[in-house]
Amino acid sequence: MIHPHQVPWVRGHVKRGPRLGRISAWLGAALGVSAIVACDGETTVLGPTRFSEVGHIQVDVVSRLDDDRGALTETLRWVSDGTWGLVERVSYRGVQGSETVRRSHVNPGELVAEYASLVRQLNEATGLRLLDGAVSENLLPACDPAAGEFPTHVAFTMYDERRDETHRWVRCADGSLLDPENPITPGESGPDPEAARVITAAQLARFFTVGKRAESTYTSTIPYATLDQGGNSPALPTGSRLFASATGFAPPDFVEFWRDHAGPEARLPFVDWGTEFVLLAAVGPREEAGDFVQVKRVLGIGSFTRVEIVELVPGNFCSPAAKRTHPFHLIVVPAVPRPIEFTAPQVERIPCGA
């Protein structure tokens, strides 16, 4: 357990004078300390600052999905003022399918001490510190199982605002940042023994921000890519549907839908109809502008597939325009077991103007 740590400071006295501010700034730059000049001429000199004490740390985890054709990307940034944000993205064939953003809801001041404590450990603690030169920043592994490495790419970054300097370490692991069944662990990391420090740092950042029990929005999903998404489809879809081919060529029902949706002259999007399906998530007509449909997860469950849908609607105090729309999300996925079940949309309120 990491305990909060107060950065020590000492108080001194400096003669008043027109060059006081410049002298204090020079001393701070030269010695790596901070100086605060009071109105009465007294100067409070803070001790040498630890790297990233003022700045942020960031964790980037990219795990493979569906034999490398898909990926789950998790990016956690924690700022020294206590605020944090987490962005999750699922993609297929290098094209994003969905994105989810989470932010801290507690008072940021409650996390300032935890941030300072972790930074202290990363600067000083034996077996965890990253800045002692023992953990190379020049090692850039491919995280390729064929080369004997673990498949998940983990990067840990520390940025120091006062120095305007960044350090970044990249290592391999197994699992993902928020997977409850298969989280990244120092025991399954590489390619060098010091990878355990990087993975432990990532784990601690996750623990103090999103929490130990937090779970990825995309846990267990089959990867997918967005072909198109918007608040209104000219094809006027009344519900969700599957487009699949028995010949390896674009099926007639998809060709017809795409012409109604994108226009008769629009080119068909690339789909490998021999190995892929197209799924349309739609909720039918809506009477106010601002509704948005999002596929969250595509789950293979035994002999069938479940597609989870979220409908994003303006908040209770918004005043959306009265307008009939047909929100939709059109995605491509690797061929999945049929039948395919589209869930009833889970409604989520979004802030006005978002």
Would you mind describing this structure in some detail?
The chain is an alpha+beta fold. It folds into 3 domains: 9-46, no CATH class; 55-208, Mago nashi protein; 225-350, no CATH class. It contains 4 helices and 20 strands. The strands form 5 sheets. The protein has a 7-stranded antiparallel β-sheet with strand order 7-6-5-4-8-9-10, with helices on one face. A 4-stranded antiparallel β-sheet has the order 11-18-13-12, with no helix packed on it. The longest helix has 16 residues, at 109-124. The two termini are 38 Å apart.
Features:
single chain, 354 residues, alpha+beta, Mago nashi protein, 3 domains, seven-stranded antiparallel beta sheet, globular
Secondary structure topology:
Layout: E1 9-13, H1 20-31, E2 34-37, E3 42-46, E4 55-65, E5 70-79, E6 84-92, E7 95-103, H2 109-124, E8 152-160, E9 165-173, E10 189-190, H3 195-208, E11 225-230, E12 241-243, H4 252-262, E13 276-282, E14 286-288, E15 292-301, E16 304-314, E17 322-325, E18 328-334, E19 340-342, E20 346-350
Parallel strand pairs: 16-19, 16-20
Antiparallel strand pairs: 1-3, 2-3, 4-5, 4-8, 5-6, 6-7, 8-9, 9-10, 11-18, 12-13, 13-18, 14-17, 15-16
Helix pairs in contact: 2-3
